[in-house]
Design brief:
This protein has 179 residues and is an alpha+beta fold. It has two domains: 78 residues, Ribosomal protein L6 (Outer Surface Protein A, domain 3, Alpha-Beta Complex), CATH 3.90.930; 81 residues, Ribosomal protein L6 (Outer Surface Protein A, domain 3, Alpha-Beta Complex), CATH 3.90.930.12. It contains three helices and 13 strands; from the N terminus they run αββββββαββββββαβ. It is elongated.
């Protein structure tokens, strides 16, 4: 069995969990999320805990059990605390502006890059920082990866958009011609 999947997910007091059919719905103070659970695993909600149970024994089922447990735990954490992802913009003249839910990046191209935030994701913008927040961890990560792909950090000068915790390995540029 999966070590991660065997651990139950605790349900906080402010969270309401409903598992009907194959759909899990989680409601909390920050919002509500729902997800369809794979047919090889099932959930048991009792005594303030969510248990992920495999339908049969097999390698795929063990993997799905651990995955499902992590997804359920992320849903519970999302509706209680929420998630946050910080992006940093590095480069001369690089900047970002926010108007309603549209981010406009000036990142060295001949035109500004305009990106509309998906529903459920909010952003706060500083001079060189973008803080994305939301309750759905999967959507938040996907949004952050899309924004990062506009101008990935390059290794020579370190210009581009990177995650705050990301370390860019720098390379040495060309040296003068040797005679």
């Amino acid at each position: 069995m999966s070590r991660v999947g065997k651990q139950p997910v605790p349900i906080p007091d402010k969270v309401k969990v409903v598992y009907k059919g194959r759909t899990l719905s989680v409601k909390g103070p920050k919002g509500d999320l729902s997800r369809v659970i794979h047919e090889d695993v099932s959930l048991a909600v009792k005594e303030g805990l969510i248990h992920v149970l495999p339908s049969h024994h097999g390698k795929k089922t063990r993997a799905l059990q651990g995955l499902t447990r992590t997804l359920v735990a992320n849903m519970v954490t999302g509706v209680t605390q929420g998630f946050e992802r910080v992006l940093e913009i590095t480069g001369v003249g690089y900047r970002v502006d926010l108007k309603s839910n549209v981010l406009t990046f000036v990142i060295g191209y001949s035109h500004p890059v305009v990106y509309r935030l998906p529903d459920g994701i909010t952003a706060t913008v500083g001079k060189t920082r973008v803080v994305l927040a939301g309750i759905d961890k999967e959507l938040l990560g996907s949004t952050a990866a899309t924004i990062r792909s506009f101008r990935k950090p390059e290794p020579y000068k370190g210009k581009g958009i990177k995650y705050a915790e990301e370390r860019v390995r720098r390379k040495v540029g060309k040296s003068g011609a040797k005679q």
